[in-house]
Each structure stands twice: as C-alpha cells, then as structure tokens.
C-alpha cells in the first residue's frame, strides 16, 4: 500500500465526526515533554517508522505504535483482495468490511497526528511472504487466513499497550479501546473463517501460544499469550472453579510490548 | 461441524434496548457523587441507596460494575448449558462451554482483584428468557455480549489506575471475540455490525448501561456514585 492511498481514504471519511469528543488536541500538545518519554519507554520503532525517532510526545508515540499494526492489517487485506482467486467470493464482503473499518482507524489517527503537528509515519513496504517463509500466502487461502488472524491478534495486543500509554488522555484512550475491540471482532471472525475451512479446531479466541502454524514468523505473534496470572491470582483453577489452562489463557488477551511487536512485524517489512 | 458454524440462528435482535437512556436522577445527584468520590469507602453514604446494592464510587465502583456484568454473563451461559435448548448441537455445547469457562474466569479474577471491596454474588432474574428456545437464547447471548463490551469500554474510559485499565482491556477484548462469534451465529458476517462511522465500538456510560443490566437481577442495584462521562 502506498501512502497516497491512505490519503485518498481520508477523503472518504467525515472529519467532523472526529471532533465528537473534546480535549484530544490540546492535551496531545501539552504532553510534548521529554520527561514523559523517559517515564514510559515506548519509543517508536525504527523498524516501521524511522522518521519518528525524534518524537518526544508520549501520546503521539502510543498512537504511532498503534498505527504501525493498523497500517499492516489494512495493507494485508488490500493485497489479499487484489490477489485473483485467493479469497472466495462469499468471504470477500467480510474482508472488505474489515478493510473499511481499518482504513477508518488509520484515517482517524492520521487526522489527529496531523492536527497536533506530529509527524505521520510513512507506510513501510511489506513482504508478507517473509523472505519466502510463507511462499503461498497469497495463493493458498488457508495460509492467508493464518497470517490474517496473527495480524489481527497482534493488533489487539499492540493496542492494549497503546491504551496503557494513553492513560492520561481519556478521549484518545477511549478511542484506542474502541478500536481494539473492533479488531478483536475481526480476529474472531477471521479465526471462524479459518475453522470453517476445516482441518483445524481453531477457536475465535487465543489459546495458549497456539499459532496454528509451524512457521516461526507467525508463532512470534503469540509470545506471552500463555500467561495465566491475572491481577493477584492464577486464572487456571481460580477459586476452585474448573478453569483449564486453555480457558484461563483464552479468557484474557495479553498486551504486546514494543520489543515483541517489533520482533513480529520486522519479519514482514522490507528493510 | 462446518455447516453448523455457518448456520444462522435466525434470531431477531432485541430492539428494546436504549443505550442513550439515562437515569433520571443521575444528573441531579452528580454533585453528591463528586463529593463522595474522595472517599475510597463510603459506609454510610448520603443520600442513602436504601435497600439497593451500592456498587460504590471511583475505580472500585467501576470494577464492581464490570464484576456485575461478568456475573450476568457467567450465570447466563451456566443456565443455558444446564437447560440446553431444543436441538443444541455438540458444537454449540462446546462453544457455550468454552465461553462459560472464560466468563467464569473473568468473574472470579475480578472478584479477587476487588478483594474485600467486591459486591456479593447477586441472584439473576432470567424470567424473560426461554432457555428451551434456541432463538431466545441466542438473542440474549447477543444482547449480553454487546452490553458487556459496550459497558466495559465505557468503564475503560473512566478508570484512573493503569492496573485496572490493563485488566479490563484484556477482558473486554475477549468479550468482543465472544460477541463477534455470537453475532456470526445469529447472522453470518455481522461480527462488527455496530461499529460507528470511525469503525469503532460504541461504548456505553455506566449509568445507561446499568439501566439495562439491572433488569436481569432480582435485587435493586444502585450506581449513583459511579463516575460519569
């Protein structure tokens, strides 16, 4: 996907709706301090955003981090829809719906980054075959769905990190939460599509670190998803209830930090 | 199995839920709520919530409301599996069981997280649900999951402490997965049909959310001290 395309998508949205909640712009600006950056080490990744290294606005960085995976998700679906014979006719509408919503997420964040004089990151050039680790990603629908749910699951997880880092701004934090649950809906649907294709018992939620793939590049999406400790308890068998390891891990999506996110995304980005 | 997962449950959506409806007294008591907000515990709050269960104020109240939502969901799937609607397939039993266990995990983790501040387990009122009837069960599953995600997202907007926010984002993400699946069961492809013009989930403020949630509990529940948008 070229950057120009996203700008075109901007034309399809109504910027007035972005203004529905007060307080985003002023607060975003007031947080441009180096102090905040030092306190919460969410440095923008050099992998997907070289130009952003000088950013000192912690809120803007949290948004840029989220944008990184939204860019990637949209590019992947766009490329999938363009691949002749890949996505069956009865599923194309579903992917188009998801793409439309992702383009809106992207347009929303770009609008606010621009409005607050922050640099909008450029869209990287992607290599979804990951140096031929996934040679049939655009010719084999099952492979396509497997990377698709990995990207959606990583999206949920990366947005959780952004939500944490947007704590000080109620409006942006709320936006990130509301985008995250939309991505979780996409993730569940893609997993259902994969299940309906047969040959796997994949469920709409993440179970342990199961990637449903032997490809290491995809497995990186699930690092840390086997966590069962939540708050002050172990969710497995919590309070004497028969909660299995699978249920305990499935019940909670885990935030993905910068290092793990970059380790995953870098495999699909051309240097 | 493949066919069943694709099959629509042909339920009709419950159109009776008004997300914009606020409690009449919410505005009038907003000042009182702010006053109380500085106390972490209010053993004898003024005005009194009478016999109604008081969810509390601040993050504690918000977490209790999240706990209430998870109580509702866990109780619903537990009952649905006990009663099993006519024609419930093994796949459906498997799915409902998995969701029930995840809701139980949410409920118990929130209970432990709240510690002594947790509200008691409240008795549900499912008299409006015909558990023998597939459409009735799916319609309520759809409503409860959508309600939970919208309610939890509203709570996430208001929480102060980052550890509470982190825990609830982990939970609402998975409830959104449940909601996506139930929606797809009801009408395949409707996984994110309620997103707004920005492709975002539409959150619900605790006051109007509770207005619907309370209908499914026998005891009166008061959220007058909950933080407001």
Explained architecture:
The complex is a heterodimer of chains A (271) and B (229). By secondary structure, chain A is an all-alpha fold. Chain A is 54% helix and 1% strand. A two-stranded antiparallel sheet of chain A has the order 1-2. In chain A, a hairpin with a 2-residue loop joins strand 1 and strand 2 (233-234). The radius of gyration of chain A is 19 Å and the shape is globular. With 229 residues, chain B is mainly alpha-helical. In chain B, 55% of the residues lie in helices and 2% in strands. Chain B has helices at residues 2-6, 24-28, 30-36, 58-83, 90-114, 134-158, 162-186, 206-213, and strands at 53-54, 221-222. Chain B has a two-stranded parallel sheet. In chain B, helix 4 packs antiparallel against helix 6 and helix 6 (134-158) packs antiparallel against helix 8 (206-213). The radius of gyration of chain B is 18 Å and the shape is globular. Chain B starts with a helix and ends in a 7-residue tail after the last strand. The model of chain B is unreliable at 1-45 (pLDDT under 50). The chains are: A mainly alpha (271), B mainly alpha (229). At the A-B interface, helix 6, helix 7, helix 8 and helix 10 of A face helix 1, helix 5, helix 6 and helix 7 of B.
């Amino acid at each position: 996907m070229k950057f120009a395309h996203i700008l075109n998508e901007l034309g399809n949205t109504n910027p007035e709706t972005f203004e529905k909640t007060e307080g985003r712009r002023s607060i975003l600006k007031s947080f441009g301090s180096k102090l905040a950056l030092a306190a919460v080490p969410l440095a923008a990744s050099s992998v997907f955003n070289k130009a952003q290294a000088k950013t000192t606005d912690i809120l803007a960085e949290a948004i840029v981090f989220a944008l990184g995976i939204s860019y990637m998700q949209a590019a992947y679906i766009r490329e999938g829809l363009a691949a002749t014979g890949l996505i069956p006719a009865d599923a194309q509408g579903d992917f188009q719906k998801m793409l439309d919503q992702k383009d809106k997420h992207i347009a929303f964040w770009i609008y606010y980054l621009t409005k607050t004089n922050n640099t909008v990151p450029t869209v990287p050039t992607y290599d979804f075959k990951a140096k031929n680790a996934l040679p049939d990603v655009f010719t084999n629908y099952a492979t396509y769905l497997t990377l698709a749910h990995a990207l959606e699951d990583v999206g949920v997880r990366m947005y959780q990190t952004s939500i944490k880092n947007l704590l000080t701004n109620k409006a942006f934090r709320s936006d990130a939460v509301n985008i995250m649950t939309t991505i979780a809906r996409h993730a569940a649907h893609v997993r259902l599509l994969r299940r309906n294709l047969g040959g796997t018992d994949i469920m709409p939620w993440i179970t342990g670190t199961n990637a449903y793939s032997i490809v290491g590049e995809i497995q990186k999406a699930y690092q840390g998803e086997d966590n069962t400790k939540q708050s002050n308890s172990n969710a497995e068998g919590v309070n004497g209830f028969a909660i299995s390891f699978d249920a305990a891990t499935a019940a909670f999506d885990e935030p993905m930090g910068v290092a793990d996110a970059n380790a995953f995304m870098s495999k699909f980005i051309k240097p | 199995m493949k066919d069943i997962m694709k099959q629509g449950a042909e339920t009709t959506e419950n159109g009776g839920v008004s997300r914009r409806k606020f409690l009449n007294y919410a505005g009038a008591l907003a000042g009182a709520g702010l006053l109380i907000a500085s106390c972490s515990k209010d053993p004898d709050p003024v005005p009194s919530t009478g016999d109604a269960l008081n969810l509390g104020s601040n993050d504690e109240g918000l977490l209790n409301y999240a706990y209430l939502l998870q109580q509702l969901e866990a109780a619903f799937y537990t009952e649905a599996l006990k009663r099993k609607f006519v024609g419930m397939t093994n796949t459906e039993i498997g799915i409902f069981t998995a969701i029930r266990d995840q809701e139980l995990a949410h409920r118990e983790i929130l209970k432990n997280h709240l510690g002594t501040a947790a509200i008691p387990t409240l008795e549900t009122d499912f008299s409006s649900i015909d558990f023998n009837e597939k459409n009735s069960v799916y319609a309520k599953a759809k409503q409860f999951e959508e309600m939970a995600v919208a309610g939890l997202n509203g709570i996430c907007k208001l929480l102060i402490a980052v550890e509470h926010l982190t825990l609830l984002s982990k939970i609402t993400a998975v409830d959104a997965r449940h909601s996506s699946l139930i929606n797809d069961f009801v009408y395949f492809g409707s996984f994110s049909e309620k997103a707004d013009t920005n492709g975002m989930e539409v959150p619900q403020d605790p006051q109007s959310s509770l207005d619907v949630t309370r209908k499914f509990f026998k005891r009166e529940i008061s959220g007058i001290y909950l933080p407001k948008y």
